[in-house]
Amino acid sequence: MGISKLTDILSYFPYRYEVIEYIPFKDWKIGTKIIIEATVTDKPKINYYRGKNSILYLNVVNEDDFFRVSIFNRHWLMKLQVNEKITIIGTYEGNNRILASHINMQPLKEQIGIKPYYSLKEGIREKTFLRIVDQVIKKYQENIIDFIPEYIKKENNFLSKKEAVKQIHQPENKKLLSQAINTLKYEEFLKFNLVMAKRRSDSLILDSNFKKEFDIKKVKYFIQQLPFKLTDDQNNAIKEILSDLQSERQMARILQGDVGCGKTIVAFIVMYATVLAEKQAAIMAPTEILAKQHYSNMINFFNNYDVEIGILYSSQSIQERRMTLEKIKNKEIKLIVGTHSLFQEQVEFNNLGLVVTDEQHRFGVKQRQSFLLKGEYVDMLLMSATPIPRTLATTLYGDLDVTTITQTPYADKKVHTVLIKQNSFISKIDEIENLLNQKNQMYVVCPAIDKGKDNIRNVNDIYTNLKKHYQGRYKVGLLHGQLDQQQKQIVERQFSDGEIDILVCTTVIEVGVDVKNANVMIIYDANRFGLSQLHQLRGRIGRGEKQGYCYLLTSSQEDEIIEKLNVIVNNNDGFKISYYDLLLRGPGDILGYRQSGLPTFILGNIIKDNKLLNDSSREAKKLIKELDKYPLIDNYLKQTENESVLDFQV
Q1: Cα Rg, the chain, nearest whole Å
Q2: Which secondary-structure segment (H or E) carries 70?
């Protein structure tokens, strides 16, 4: 529950509310939620079914109206006596019949109102917790200080913080509850946006040492020699980033775009410009697979240029690593590719000028900051393949400049995606075998490595079954995080070289594996993955000239899950998909929980509460210029100065 001291209870908010209000019988319709006080007219009757399950029937009268009441599994209500007064809460079924959810002896007037529900651990009784909440509010309410400035409260009809806390736990009416929730949401957003605005303000300090001078003609020549034409968005992104490199301000920019939009070549081009300015440039990838892929691509792109490229990763031989470190230190190597290995103390750069972080959400905020300390005047470019709408990105990445690539080189070629019930998949076997016979390779993705209690598909079982089924026809490989590094490398190379036809794997292939002939993907228990993750996985196929086919399998019959998966079926646009994902799960889960650099707000939803988020962003930019007037805010910013956005209390 995250409660370590009594005052934590004040910010442990209800997850839902039930509005209990009296409605006269004349206004009832079928399905109306009702509460009435009534008198028992006959002795209750009970029917048992399926063992101990029961349904109890009761006849009651309210004023001049008689009702037949039924309630499940409440055998102790057989003790009710004729003429006894009771309160009934339930649903009207028509024809004077009520299906009750609660029957008790409390007076009706004591039960009308808004009832809060908390997520409580097993063993904690609701009544006990409500009593503790009441005691804590009475004891500490007067100590609660307003964080939101007075003028903002008046303009937005917000409550004082102490009143908002009281109303969110003990609401008097719907209006005050709504005001309380909006007040506390706004405070969350304001705190976040103040930190973003302060960081932004601090980054605007100019220093001529950040300015990089390079021959733009050489950059343009490099672009002209590429074996493909860049999109307009890519060209615009390059212009924006090169302009940053040439400025006296430290670059802190995020480059976001959908899977396959061509962010990597943009990064390579601006890294080349940095090298032309007599500085080193490094790109950090979250996995060894992706680092090696970047290294291989760099070798190809810079083959005819006088630029030495180096790579660092954990499973490197000691001799190769030592030689690479020496060359980086002596500046023989100008372009460096690596994984987390680049953080290590023994890595000494020689005039590092640019750090590029690929799949930025996979690195912690502090990790990225420590990488910047590897040089004195280092520009930073973050890349994200989980794009969010630009207006939202500008607010959420408030301390960064945002460059967005919306075009993709092969926008007309979309992966064909279908949703299938897991037990109906046999109907697609012929279709899939036909695709394999056409020399397409296939990924089979499972959410688990080994068999667990929840009966979800795992790679070991699926691998064994497929290997047996396709023996002599197709070569089946296995890839997951528990394999040792050498085994992984062998499987990756075999799949890349076409020696493996079917690769059974976990989400280790979500980032980095780029096999042009892989055009088929089966994802078991697709409901176990987030939308953005499914889109990332799907982005591994259809990367060549052939059509891609993705099969989402689920055994779930829940409407919500089917609706969620249909978002993937009906969309190939990563911006739309991440928008839905943000709506469903929030930024922390999508962009890498607690590593995204974005907060997991307690109350606020960045999509549903977009207006509050934007309003607070606008006010934060004003407040940051007048901190002398707001000592509480100034003190708060000093406290959070050296913390990631997620480490401070929102």
Answers
A1: 30
A2: strand 65-72
Query: What Å distances lie between residue 58 and 20, 52, 79, 264, 353, CA to CA?
Result: 22, 19, 12, 71, 80
Instruction: Say whether both 347 and 427 belong to one domain.
Output: no
Q: Which residue, of 335, 368, 384, is where some domain finishes?
A: 384
Closest by Cα among 404, 431, 410, 411 to 420: 431
Of 334, 340, 317, the C-alpha closest to 486 is 317
Question: What is the percent of the chain with per-residue pLDDT over 90, rounded to a whole number?
Answer: 51
pLDDT of residue 90: 94
**Rounded to whole angstroms, how far apart are CA atoms 593 and 162?**
31
Of 333, 362, 384, the residue that ends a domain is: 384
Whether residue 597 lies inside any domain: the answer is no
For the beta carbon of residue 179, count every other beta carbon within 10 angstroms: 20
Side-chain half-sphere CA neighbours of 8 within 13 A? 7
- Which structural domain, as residue segments, surrounds residue 558? 416-571
In a 3-state reduction of DSSP, which class is residue 404? strand
User: pLDDT under 70 in the chain at which residues?
Assistant: 1-2, 360-372, 410-413, 453, 510-513, 585-600, 642-650
Query: Is 613 within a domain?
Result: no
Task: Please check whether residues 223 and 288 belong to one and the same domain.
Answer: yes
Strand 518-523, strand 441-445: pairing: parallel
Find out whether 356 and 330 touch, Cβ atoms under 8 Å. Answer: no
Report the pLDDT value the prediction gives residue 361, as an integer from 0 to 100.
53
Do residues 268 and 310 both lie within one domain?
A: yes
Q: Extract the tokens encoding 601.
A: 């707000």
* Of 480, 579, 597, 578, nearest in space to 536 by CA: 578
Distance from C-alpha of 504 to C-alpha of 475, rounded to nearest angstrom: 11
| Residue 341 domain flag | yes
Question: Which residue type occupies 186?
Answer: Y
What is this structure's pTM? 0.74
Could you read off the pLDDT of 91-146 as tens digits, one per residue?
Answer: 999 999 999 999 999 899 888 889 899 988 877 888 888 999 999 999 988 889 99
Residue with tokens 């990838």: 285
> CA-to-CA distance for 233 and 239, rounded, in angstroms?
10
Give the number of other Cβ atoms within 10 Å of residue 596's Cβ.
Answer: 26
Instruction: Give the separation between CA 444 and CA 52, rounded to whole angstroms.
Output: 45
User: How many structural domains comprise the chain?
Assistant: 3
The one-letter code for the residue type at 232 is: D
Burial class (CB in 10 A: 0-12, 13-18, 19+), 468: exposed
Residue whose C-alpha is closest to residue 648's, from 615, 590, 599: 599
